[in-house]
């Protein structure tokens, strides 16, 4: 009888640990982080769109997205190489979620193609301004378990990514103007 009580107690402890672990994973999966940048460019929407939609030319001017190949069509997967100060992703294969001609390119990238592990929903947006210039907005919403852990332990990753966005924005401005 004593052995049965001990076994039952062990099962309860193991069950409690498993439930706690699942609750922690669920909480962590709701981790999120946004990186947002914008820059004013003295060029037309058409000029800026021609540059950001020409993926093959990224290697000539883009210090953040150093290679990009693929067709700008919803559902298509791009083949890219990303480089920021702390990380190089090669290959990086995001899936296009939205392509609004002359306005926006939006994709989602996932670590190991597993949803809610580390998802990055990336946007490149062109907005016309009343002075004839455009505002180029680049932002990314990160979500998932690894995002929560990265927020806790690796602040540099997001800082480096923000700097990568800013370097790309500045290079785009120079190329367009």
UniProtKB/TrEMBL annotation:
SUPFAM superfamilies: Bet v1-like. InterPro entries: Polyketide_cyclase/dehydratase (IPR019587), START-like_dom_sf (IPR023393). This is SRPBCC domain-containing protein. It holds the Pfam family Polyketide_cyc2.
């Amino acid at each position: 009888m004593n052995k049965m009580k001990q076994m039952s107690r062990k099962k309860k402890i193991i069950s409690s640990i498993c439930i706690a672990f699942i609750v922690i994973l669920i909480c962590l999966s709701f981790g999120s982080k946004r990186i947002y940048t914008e820059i004013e460019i003295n060029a037309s929407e058409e000029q800026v769109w021609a540059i950001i939609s020409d993926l093959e030319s990224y290697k000539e001017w883009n210090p953040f997205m150093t290679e990009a190949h693929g067709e700008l069509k919803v559902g298509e997967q791009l083949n890219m190489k990303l480089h920021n100060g702390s990380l190089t992703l090669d290959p990086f294969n995001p899936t296009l979620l939205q392509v609004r001609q002359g306005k926006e390119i939006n994709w989602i990238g996932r670590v190991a193609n597993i949803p809610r592990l580390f998802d990055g929903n990336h946007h490149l947006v062109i907005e016309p301004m009343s002075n004839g210039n455009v505002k180029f907005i680049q932002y990314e919403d990160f979500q998932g378990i690894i995002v929560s852990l990265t927020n806790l332990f690796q602040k540099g990753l997001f800082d480096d990514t923000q700097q990568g966005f800013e370097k790309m924005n500045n290079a785009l401005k120079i190329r367009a103007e």
